[in-house]
Q: What sequence folds into this?
């Protein structure tokens, strides 16, 4: 079911985000605290350094905990913005596993990357109805039938100019339009099974994230063997704000006061077992973080549609 | 300031104490027998936010500050706890980390009750255990209501009329199977759940519809079986932002289980939903499943209070930074009340 991490703020080594804390993202691949499922289907990262408009991209279908390349990279790359994802896939005879399915998705020449935590039930039935909403130049870039990549393509199609830099507001609007479209198509096809769509979009200067679920709580059937734990719980999303994320007196946390905040972390679950310096993003809502000014602008809106 | 009342070893007398005021003298004594006394000096930290909670506390003497750390290393004093107050119950009930730190404002005396002893008393302690757990659950409910009022900046609400009857029907047999996967019924066997069926009712609700609970007739205990509900503002303008959606296994209306009056509330159906009604008799003291059901309700309330407190803090932060045009939902701000 995946775990995601997004960071925006003063440049810091990726190692601090991916490995250092007691519930780091890499650790969440094999021992998540808030998910009764492992995330062993690969790792992906988009990381922006302070000077470049386009990110470094790293994808591996292997386990990040056993990837020495990633560890070396993480120790040496400082990012002002990062979006990272460990992928979890339900066991099946025909799983969609491989490098082409790894998040975050970012097409060449696009500034915004997207990662998804969740899944769209019966997505194959939705796809024909979504095709017409893709811009032709975006449709040509779509490589897979994966719900998450299609959500990315639809998000880009909802931007005025998919390759241009956009304001936080414009990115948030495009994400909301994407969710509305998915909701309309679900109703059109007659899907009312719970589907989680926690979405994270980053472009190096801003991050927009939605915590949303279609038909939360609607499991597939009354057969208890068919009811998954994640159909009973709303997928979590947390954030923390401060001057910087650092190890303070043996504990990793944001320090320095939120009123003078210069950094923001957003994650499927807190990066530390001590959750005291993290806050939950409300369900059915969208949060945005923008580092364009002197201080990060944080905004939120509810998603009611 | 008046001198704080002293709590005796036997648990007698406790004016101003909100848990102990709810208990009979013999129940207070029973509860106190389980614990040990701990004396803390001024400034001493009793528990730290974020650590594992393996005990709860009753303030016997003195004052403790309930302190919550915020992102960015700041702290906020939520309340000052005085004699008779119960502290640390959330972590014991829901198994989560401590939601706040406790620090002695001055030399204080605490009764420390371990998780195992508390569970043994409330799950297997007969009538006394049942009464004590009900008092604890009622206290958590009151704190939750207070948090909701503060978070929504609400004073007295205009009373809503009780809801129309929902048309409950007997549950199909497969409902017992669904109950086996809901955390609220963990520990009960399928046979127990099947024998519970005559005391249950179910009703299906359409996405987007509204309802008011409790019903005007025969209020019971109502839980979400499938789908989800959100508490909705009385005027129908939107969700009660600091309250999480209630999904499968979550209690929606539980006043009858605690023997308290229930204020009618509006709910919005988020997904195609099936509600389940449990007869109040299931929660009565000598019923075979009353203890685990009451404990499940207490855990559910504790989880909701923990999350509501956090969400109130979120709105206090995010809304404050929001562009004025967007600050629309003015229901957000909150120096959150106490949740420990």
A:
């Amino acid at each position: 079911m995946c775990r995601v991490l997004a960071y925006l703020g003063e440049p810091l080594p990726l190692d601090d985000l991916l490995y250092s804390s007691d519930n780091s993202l890499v650790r969440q691949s094999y021992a998540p605290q808030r998910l009764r499922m492992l995330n062993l289907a690969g790792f992906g990262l988009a990381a922006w350094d302070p000077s470049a408009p386009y990110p470094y991209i790293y994808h591996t279908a292997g386990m990040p905990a056993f990837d020495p390349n990633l560890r070396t990279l993480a120790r040496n790359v400082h990012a002002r913005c990062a979006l990272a994802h460990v992928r979890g896939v339900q066991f099946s005879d025909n799983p969609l596993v491989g490098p082409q399915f790894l998040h975050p998705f970012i097409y060449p020449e696009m500034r915004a990357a997207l990662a998804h935590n969740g899944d769209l039930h019966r997505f194959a039935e939705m796809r024909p109805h979504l095709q017409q909403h893709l811009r032709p130049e975006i449709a040509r870039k779509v490589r897979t039938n994966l719900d998450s990549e299609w959500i990315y393509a639809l998000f880009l199609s909802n931007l005025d100019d998919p390759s241009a830099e956009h304001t936080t507001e414009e990115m948030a609007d495009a994400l909301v339009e994407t969710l509305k479209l998915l909701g309309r198509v679900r109703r059109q096809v007659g899907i009312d099974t719970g589907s989680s769509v926690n979405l994270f979009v980053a472009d190096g200067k801003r991050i927009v994230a939605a915590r949303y679920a279609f038909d939360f709580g609607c499991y597939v059937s009354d057969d208890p063997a068919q009811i998954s734990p994640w159909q009973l719980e709303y997928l979590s999303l947390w954030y923390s704000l401060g001057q910087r994320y650092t190890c303070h007196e043996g504990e990793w946390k944001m320090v320095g006061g939120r009123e003078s905040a210069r950094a923001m972390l957003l994650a499927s679950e807190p990066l530390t077992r001590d959750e005291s310096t993290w806050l939950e993003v409300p369900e059915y809502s969208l949060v945005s973080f923008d580092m364009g000014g002197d201080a990060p602008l944080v905004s939120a809106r509810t998603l009611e549609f | 300031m008046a001198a704080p009342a002293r709590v005796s070893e036997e648990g007698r007398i406790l004016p101003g104490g909100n848990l102990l005021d709810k208990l009979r003298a013999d129940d207070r004594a029973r509860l106190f027998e389980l614990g040990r006394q701990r004396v803390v000096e001024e400034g001493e930290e009793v528990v730290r936010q974020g650590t594992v909670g393996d005990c709860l506390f009753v303030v016997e003497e003195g004052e403790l500050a309930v302190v919550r750390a915020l992102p960015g290393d700041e702290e906020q004093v939520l309340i000052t706890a005085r004699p008779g107050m119960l502290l640390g119950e959330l972590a014991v009930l829901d198994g989560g980390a401590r939601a706040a730190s406790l620090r002695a404002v001055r030399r204080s005396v605490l009764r420390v009750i371990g998780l195992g002893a508390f569970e043994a008393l409330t799950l297997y302690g007969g009538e006394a255990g049942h009464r004590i757990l009900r008092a604890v659950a009622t206290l958590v409910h009151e704190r939750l209501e207070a948090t909701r009022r503060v978070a929504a900046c609400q004073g007295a609400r205009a009373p809503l009329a009780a809801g129309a009857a929902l048309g409950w029907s007997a549950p199909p047999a497969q409902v017992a199977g669904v109950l086996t996967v809901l955390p609220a019924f963990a520990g009960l066997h399928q046979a127990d759940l099947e024998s519970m069926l005559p005391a249950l009712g179910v009703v299906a609700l359409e996405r987007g519809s509204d309802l008011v609970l409790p019903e005007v007739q025969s209020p019971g205990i109502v839980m979400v079986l499938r789908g989800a509900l959100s508490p909705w503002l009385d005027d129908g303008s939107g969700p009660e932002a600091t309250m999480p959606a209630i999904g499968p296994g979550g209690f929606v209306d539980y006043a009858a289980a605690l023997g308290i009056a229930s204020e009618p509330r509006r709910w919005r159906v988020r997904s195609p939903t099936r509600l389940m009604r449990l007869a109040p008799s299931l929660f009565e003291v000598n019923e075979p499943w009353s203890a685990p059901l009451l404990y499940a309700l207490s855990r559910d309330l504790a989880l909701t209070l923990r999350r509501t407190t956090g969400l109130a803090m979120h709105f206090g932060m995010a809304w404050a930074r929001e562009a004025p045009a967007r600050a629309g939902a003015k229901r957000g701000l909150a120096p959150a009340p106490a949740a420990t």
Notes: The radius of gyration of chain B is 21 Å. The longest strand of chain B covers residues 74-81. The helical segments of chain B are 25-34, 89-94, 115-124, 126-151, 175-179, 190-196, 255-258, 290-321. Residues 120 and 288 of chain B are 16 Å apart (CA to CA).
